[in-house]
Design brief:
- There is one protein chain.
- This protein is of the alpha/beta class and 152 residues long.
- The chain has one domain: 3-Layer(aba) Sandwich (Rossmann fold).
- Helix content is 39%, strand content 14%.
- The chain contains six helices and four strands.
- The chain has a four-stranded parallel β-sheet with strand order 2-1-3-4, sandwiched between helices.
- Helix 1 links the parallel strand 1 and strand 2.
- Helix 1 packs across helix 6 and helix 2 packs across helix 6.
- The two termini are 12 Å apart.
- The structure holds 4-nitrophenyl phosphate (4NP).
- 4-nitrophenyl phosphate binds next to loops.
């Protein structure tokens, strides 16, 4: 059975598509499936934000094939681990859970680097390009930890 991992942010066009692309670049697709979704539905069917595509490209990761999806309760059945980008995403995803087993799948991705500190990946949507570089670096380090901790 493949380990299935879902990255979640608000719009599914900036942070979680990058997280999906970065983790995908680190795993064996025969063993691990990585996807992403947004808690909001505004960008369903859209390509990632051009600034996320650009920072991924600079790091030799292609995320242009990704399309926006909205998180749903069904995702709790599909995925083994659900990594959210910030506390607001965490609350939105937990609201849709029904059981403790589902809730145990959800964690803030920067808990990988700063356990228990509830650090947010800042939303770069309204900022400049440097915000995207910063987000890339944070997500890269967090994904390295995920790969080692889960032995992916
Ligand atoms: P993301 O950023 O959650 O990292 O994809 C956002 C993208 C779009 C919006 C909000 C956040 N929006 O309101 O459209």
């Amino acid at each position: 059975m493949k380990t299935k991992i879902l990255m979640v942010c608000l719009g599914n066009i900036c942070r979680s598509p990058l997280a999906e692309g970065i983790l995908t670049s680190m795993i064996d697709p025969e063993k691990v499936m990585v996807a992403s979704a947004g808690t909001g539905g505004w960008h369903v069917g859209s390509q990632p934000d051009p600034r996320s595509i650009e920072v991924a490209n600079k790091n030799n990761i292609d995320i242009t094939h990704q399309r926006g999806k909205q998180f749903s309760t069904y995702d709790y059945e599909i995925y083994d681990h659900i990594f959210v980008m910030d506390a607001s995403n965490y609350n939105d995803v937990i609201k849709l859970s029904k059981t403790d087993t589902e809730r145990a799948k959800v964690s803030m991705i920067l808990d990988e680097l700063f356990p228990g500190e509830k650090v947010d990946v800042p939303d770069p949507y309204y900022g400049g390009d440097s915000g995207f570089d910063n987000v890339y670096d944070m997500l890269y380090s967090a994904c390295e930890k995920i790969v080692s901790r889960l032995a992916l």
